From TrEMBL:
Record's keyword annotation contains Mitochondrion: no
Lineage: Bacteria, Bacillati, Actinomycetota, Actinomycetes, Micrococcales
Protein name (Swiss-Prot/TrEMBL): LmbE family N-acetylglucosaminyl deacetylase
Keyword DNA damage applies: no
Entries under PANTHER family matching the protein: LMBE FAMILY PROTEIN, N-ACETYLGLUCOSAMINYL-PHOSPHATIDYLINOSITOL DE-N-ACETYLASE-RELATED
InterPro entries the UniProt entry points to: GlcNAc_PI_deacetylase-related (IPR003737), LmbE-like_dom_sf (IPR024078)
A single GO BP: glycoside metabolic process
GO MF terms held by the record: hydrolase activity, acting on carbon-nitrogen (but not peptide) bonds, in linear amides
Keywords assigned by UniProt, alphabetized: Zinc
Signal peptide range: none
Species per Swiss-Prot/TrEMBL record: Paeniglutamicibacter cryotolerans
Tree of life domain: Bacteria
Length: 251
């Protein structure tokens, strides 16, 4: 089985998918900050408008615009300038062909080395990681990555528009069940950026201090699981080689 080795694998471009505004900031923003600091181009795609989020009834009429601005501000904290919004309804996301075609379009446009998305499997250890939209995001991206992104006959309108089929090297999935995690990133140096990104989502965090303590505890746990130096903070992923040197070609 081919595994990801940061010493030998080149990453120049990354496309990141999340179901809701703030999902990427919880799951992967420390890793994203490290990538952008190293000169990697990273783009975000948020699939829903987050319109079912928040706690203040007075925000109902403005919550979508508010969450878009929160996500853009959070992305800037970790060096990401481009944020795409698919505009799906919060709580109703499904891996439809309409959604998948948009995913394929974005991947073929950027032609990234890594696509990052939520895990499509349910995590029974912490059910909140497995919001139905999270799993739908992961399922839509996984289905799009193989075979549609690399099959010129999938969504032929994209090929006709000049978006040629593309063989993606790596799929990184966050929010994975613990038994699926196989790659850890030390985010100790970028953890404050991660927290600052999360602080931008004020509509979602009535207890900012409690949120920060929870995130730190989670990253401490992942650092210990990875065997990093005591006190290190980490994010964990299920990394899948989509097209490696030993991959058999075909759809």
């Amino acid at each position: 089985m081919t595994t990801f080795n940061p010493e030998t694998q080149t990453v120049k471009r990354v496309m990141c998918f999340g179901a809701h505004p703030d999902d990427l900031d919880f799951g992967a923003s420390g890793t994203v900050a490290a990538w952008t600091a190293a000169g990697v181009e990273v783009q975000y795609c948020i699939m829903t408008d987050g319109d079912a989020g928040g706690f203040d009834p007075d925000h109902r009429g403005s919550i979508t615009d508010m969450r878009h601005e929160e996500q853009r501000a959070a992305a800037r904290q970790v060096g990401v300038e481009t944020v795409h919004f698919l505009g799906e309804r919060d709580g109703f996301l499904e891996p439809t062909h309409e959604v998948m075609a948009q995913v394929v379009k974005l991947i073929r446009e950027l032609r990234p080395d890594v696509v990052l998305a939520q895990h499509p499997e349910r995590n029974w250890d912490r059910l909140q990681k497995s919001h139905p939209d999270h799993m739908a995001c992961g399922e839509a991206v996984t289905r799009a990555v193989y075979p549609a992104v690399e099959n010129p006959y999938s969504y032929p309108e994209l090929e006709a528009a000049g978006l040629k089929a593309y063989k993606l090297p790596w799929l990184w999935l966050y929010g994975a069940p613990a038994e699926r995690e196989n790659h850890w990133v030390d985010v100790t140096a970028t953890f404050e950026q991660k927290l600052e990104a999360l602080r931008q989502h004020l509509s979602q965090h009535p207890d900012v201090g409690g949120m920060e303590r929870f995130v730190r505890k989670q990253c401490e746990q992942k650092g210990a699981e990875a065997g990093f130096e005591a006190g290190s903070l980490a994010e964990a992923f299920h990394v899948v080689a989509v097209n490696a040197s030993d991959t058999i070609a075909g759809f």
